[in-house]
Amino acid sequence: MMQIDVLTLFPEMFAPLEYSIMKNAQDQGHLAFHTHNFREYAVNKHGHVDDYPYGGGAGMLLRVEPIVEQLEALQKSSHARTILVDPTGVPFTQELAMEWSNEEQLIFICGHYEGFDQRIREFVTDEVSIGDYVLTNGELPAMVMIDATVRLIPEVVGNDASIVQESYSDSLLEYPQYTRPQVFRDLEVPEVLLSGNHAKIEQWRREQALLNTLHRRPDLLETAQLSEAEKQWLSQQN
Ligand SMILES: C[S@@+](CC[C@H](N)C(=O)[O-])C[C@H]1O[C@@H](n2cnc3c(N)ncnc32)[C@H](O)[C@@H]1O
Hints:
Blueprint: E1 2-7, H1 20-27, E2 31-36, E3 50-51, E4 61-62, H2 64-74, E5 81-91, H3 94-100, E6 105-110, E7 126-129, H4 139-150, H5 160-164, E8 183-184, E9 187-188, H6 198-216, H7 228-235
Parallel strand pairs: 1-2, 1-6, 5-6, 5-7
Antiparallel strand pairs: 3-4, 8-9
Bound molecules: S-adenosylmethionine (SAM).
């Protein structure tokens, strides 16, 4: 079972993890999820966990002591992956989610205000951002990363194929998918999907995934595993 611990000043914000697949993962024993309010390790009886930045500047910074003391109180083993949720970190990707889904314990540290005292970085294994924009808090990014990771734990989503063929799993975006009705207004399901010819369907899906990626995220094609024939086919599509 994977254990995920989150250091946060706002444990109530994690209510979304009590629903749907995240809830099932916990009920079925694939995930143990706990929040820890590091205000319990506040530096004084007034509950202070933040302070003014040395050298001046706007806003307040989270102090290092409450976070490190909370971290040390719950670190099960030195193998725990300890993740600082931070906009200056490396970008979160499907590949990272895949790597984390094999870990025994993940610990997320959520920031607030102007962020963290720099020295907290000495106590973590990863510093990760969810994108090139700034949110008010680390709780939302932590939930995004937890959700993307937990659904990759074997048996959590329940259908390995649906994960293997998804967008980003092989550096390609997913192909278009359709369900009933066969015709909605004048919008028809592509003929090939009704043909029953599995080889043709697979080929169509692969080509559509390649085209989707070419049109929407051409940068991904640089790392995608493509055959020579596919590279040539793609070069003729522009
Ligand atoms: C207002 S932000 C601090 C921004 C910081 N002063 C900076 O410029 O890098 C407060 C907290 O929100 C979280 N946060 C905001 N944007 C994020 C992002 N794109 N990825 C990950 N965490 C983010 C981090 O935990 C951060 O400490």
